[in-house]
């Protein structure tokens, strides 16, 4: 049976860091541009006639919509960072229009 040190001698867990969040600053431009690129790629591929490519593109777009909304939610607290957020908003609008019209 292994010896276990008494509780008083054990090293404390890092409880002081639990729940401690630092401000990371505004959302990076590369995040906005990456989301925009992925949405545009999904829109282009969803127009293809091959069933597998079309299904993959729709799956990509369905996954990107909640992710993009979450990034916009974080940007409200942290800051938008750049005007690239406008391109992402436009891409999101195109995707939502494609799904609902």
Mean pLDDT comes to: 86
Could you spell the SSE succession in H and E letters?
A: HHH
State the total count of DSSP E strands: 0
Helix content: 55-70%
Q: In terms of structural class, how would the helical and strand content be classed?
A: mainly alpha
Low-confidence runs: none
Number of helices: 3
Q: Report the radius of gyration as a whole number of Å.
A: 22 Å
**How is the biggest beta sheet arranged?**
none
- What is the approximate shape? elongated
Q: How much of the residues is beta strand, in percent?
A: under 5%
Describe this structure in words.
The protein is mainly α. Helix content is 62%, strand content 0%. The protein contains 3 helices and no strands. The chain has helices at residues 29-46, 51-78, 84-100. The longest helix is centred in the middle third of the chain and has 28 residues, at 51-78.
Task: Give keywords.
about 100 residues; mainly alpha; 3 helices; elongated
Short recap of the structure:
This protein has helices at 29-46, 51-78, 84-100. The chain is mainly alpha-helical.
Topology (SSEs and partners):
Blueprint: H1 29-46, H2 51-78, H3 84-100
Helix pairs in contact: 1-2, 1-3, 2-3
């Amino acid at each position: 049976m292994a010896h276990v040190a008494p509780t008083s001698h054990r090293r404390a867990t890092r409880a002081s860091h639990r729940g401690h969040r630092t401000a990371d600053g505004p959302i990076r431009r590369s995040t906005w541009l990456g989301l925009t690129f992925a949405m545009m790629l999904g829109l282009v591929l969803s127009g293809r006639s091959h069933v597998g490519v079309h299904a993959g593109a729709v799956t990509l777009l369905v996954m990107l919509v909640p992710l993009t909304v979450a990034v916009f939610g974080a940007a409200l607290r942290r800051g938008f960072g750049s005007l690239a957020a406008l391109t992402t908003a436009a891409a999101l609008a195109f995707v939502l229009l494609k799904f609902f019209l």
